[in-house]
Amino acid sequence: MAHLQIFFLSSVVALAALHSSDAVDYTVTNQAATTPGGIVFDNQLGAEYTRQQMESASQFIWDLFQQTDSTARKNVPSVSLFIVNNLPPEIPAATGNNEIRVSDKHIEAFSGDQLKPEFNGVLYHEMTHVWQWNGNGQKDDSLGGLIEGIADFVRLKANYIPAGWAKPGDGNRWYDGYSVTARFLDYCEGLKPGFVAELNKKMRDGYTTDFFFQLLGKTVDQLWTDYKNQPRN
C-alpha cells in the first residue's frame, strides 16, 4: 500500500510539473476605464472574461499549429493585454513583446451581440502574433502579409469572421495580407491538412516562398493562380 501511495504521489507531482511547464500568466488591464469604449469593456466584457479568452485562444492556436508539446512553441511565460485610448482609429489592436493593446474606440464601435464575436476575433488574431514564428528576421516582401494572413487564418478557423472580410478568391496578390491571405491559406490547407502548421514550423528558423513548393509541390505563384481559377458562385 505504501508503494502504491508513493507511486500515486510521484504521478501527481509529475503531472503538476507537466502543467506548470505549460503555464502562462495572462493579465488584463483597462487603461481607458473612463472612456466610452473603456466603460463598455468593463460593463460587457471585463478582465476575467478576457483572461479566459486569452487562455482559450492560446490552446486553440497550439492545437491548430500542432504545438501541444511546449518545446515546439515559443517560450512565453506571460502575456499582457491592455485596453488603451492612444491607437489610431483605423487600428483595432497591436501586439509586440508579448503585450497586446486593444483600442477602446474599436470596442466602442460594437454593441450587443456583435461585441463579443468581434472582440474575440481581434483577440485570436493578436494572440496568434504572440505564438507564431515570424521567419527569424528574414527579409522578404511577402513575409509581412503572410504573417498577418496566418493570424487571420486562425481567426477564420475559430469562426470569428466579421462583415467586410475578403471572400474566397478576392485579392490581387497572395501576400496582400489579412483576410485575403487567410482565404488563400485556407485553400492550401484544403490541399494538405496541417499545411499551415507545417508552414509555421518552417518559419521558426527563416523564411522563403519555396516553403510552399516543399510542402505542396507547386510554387506559391502556381498555387495562387489555381486558387484564383477555382469555380465560384
- Overall radius of gyration: 20 Å
Specify the helix fraction band. 40-55%
The major β-sheet equals:
4 strands, mixed
Mean pLDDT, all residues:
91
Q: Give the ordered list of helices and strands.
A: HEHHEEEHHHHHHH
**Main structural class:** alpha/beta
Proportion of residues in extended strands: 5-15%
Order of adjacent strands in the largest pleated sheet: 1-2-4-3
Notable characteristics:
233 residues, single chain, 9% strand, 4-stranded mixed β-sheet, 4 strands, alpha/beta, 10 helices
Commentary on this structure:
The chain has 233 residues and is an alpha/beta fold. It has 10 helices and 4 strands; from the N terminus they run αβααβββααααααα. A 4-stranded mixed sheet has the order 1-2-4-3. A hairpin with a 2-residue loop joins strand 3 (93-96) and strand 4. The chain is globular. The termini are far apart. The relative contact order is 0.10. The model is unreliable at 1-21 (pLDDT under 50).
Topology:
Layout: H1 2-22, E1 25-30, H2 36-45, H3 47-64, E2 78-84, E3 93-96, E4 99-103, H4 104-108, H5 115-131, H6 143-157, H7 178-191, H8 195-202, H9 210-216, H10 220-228
Parallel strand pairs: 1-2, 2-4
Antiparallel strand pairs: 3-4
Helix pairs in contact: 3-5, 5-6, 6-7, 8-9
Q: What's the short story on this structure?
A:
By secondary structure, this protein is α/β, with parallel strands linked by helices. The chain is 53% helix and 9% strand. The protein has a four-stranded mixed beta sheet.
